[in-house]
């Protein structure tokens, strides 16, 4: 393509775009996008209607519910559809808290590295008189079971610990934590938004009572999610109105989005094992090259107990946002942490909770890989990154931190 300037035509450069921010969101799987389009065009009925058109829409939802249940090792009747992870987290925490309030259990526990959907929900409930406890994590980003055991009381209603952290990818010992909560009569919720579709999930083996997921993290459309609710568990709905979702979540369902999520769930279940091996190899290739070629770099979080696609690396004497922009100008999309916290100047609450000094909480980049990434793309990032870091360090001339 030619661009004409000052009477001369010259070639317009094209930047190769490389997407390494899959923990923020994923591109929609082509089959999932097709399912969304098909339902929008052909299955427009209200699934609560008893006539032909409504029952066709309901059938599409039933198929999606079965697919999501298969991804979680659950029964379809235990799956309640939501708009995503934030609603699922709110439903689990608020719904359980309100259902148990009359019992005198008014104590909630979470970790200090939870997603804002959990942390801000706890803050809101604390303003209403609930007692809350945030468990510390160690330098690897893992909460010790002993810390939970010490925090549990006979008044604890619910414990919420994310399955894997969105910023560093660290996987928590959820099964052991859930067992401790159950021994004290407390419910256990896990935010599995960053693990669904990446690692096998068996809700029964986890021992959780509540598990929330979001479709757009495993190549489904945005605006579609689900929460698994253990059979027999009573939650108070946070949306009141009609009797949709067996009176657990009122409102006409997003049938097209849910159908797309179902297709994405089936695809993830079929490819998860092979994709985990491929992505871990690419991630390790990227990570090891960065650590080798760029002085003053360190990996944040556990390097073994983590999801296969994520690495979080700190760059000494660099502002993370400056490096993010420099990489974007080279066509590489990365993140400084949670997309839900973008636009703020606050340091990462996750890295802060891990005990890192202030400069390290503000100089870290998250690389999160996905289905479209190739070895050639990783090599491209490896080629351009050291020069960008050196240039930024030269501009800032900041002494090294020790």
Describe the structure.
The protein is of the alpha/beta class. 41% of the residues lie in helices and 15% in strands. It contains 13 helices and 14 strands. The chain has helices spanning 30-42, 52-72, 85-100, 116-126, 145-151, 174-183, 203-206, 244-247, 255-293, 320-329, 349-353, 358-361, 375-396; strands at residues 2-5, 8-11, 18-19, 79-82, 107-111, 131-135, 156-160, 187-191, 210-214, 225-229, 297-299, 310-315, 332-333, 364-368. Strands 4-10-9-8-7-5-6 form a seven-stranded mixed β-sheet, sandwiched between helices. Helix 3 runs parallel beside helix 4 (116-126). The longest helix has 39 residues, at 255-293. The model is unreliable at 1-7 (pLDDT under 50).
Features of this protein?
13 helices; three-stranded antiparallel sheet; Aspartate Aminotransferase, domain 2; globular; seven-stranded mixed sheet; Aspartate Aminotransferase, domain 1; alpha/beta; 402 residues; 2 domains
Ordered list of secondary-structure elements with their pairings:
Blueprint: E1 2-5, E2 8-11, E3 18-19, H1 30-42, H2 52-72, E4 79-82, H3 85-100, E5 107-111, H4 116-126, E6 131-135, H5 145-151, E7 156-160, H6 174-183, E8 187-191, H7 203-206, E9 210-214, E10 225-229, H8 244-247, H9 255-293, E11 297-299, E12 310-315, H10 320-329, E13 332-333, H11 349-353, H12 358-361, E14 364-368, H13 375-396
Parallel strand pairs: 3-13, 5-6, 5-7, 7-8, 8-9
Antiparallel strand pairs: 1-2, 4-10, 9-10, 11-12, 12-14
Give the spatial strand order of the biggest sheet: 4-10-9-8-7-5-6
Largest sheet: 7 strands, mixed
| CATH fold-level assignment of the largest domain | Aspartate Aminotransferase, domain 2
Please tally the helical runs, counting DSSP H or I stretches of 4 or more residues. 13
Helix content: 40-55%
Cα gyration radius (Å): 23 Å
**What's the overall average pLDDT, rounded?**
94
- Give the CATH superfamily of the largest domain: Type I PLP-dependent aspartate aminotransferase-like (Major domain)
Domain unit count: 2
Class from secondary-structure proportions:
alpha/beta
Strand content: 5-15%
The CATH class assignment of the largest domain is: Alpha Beta
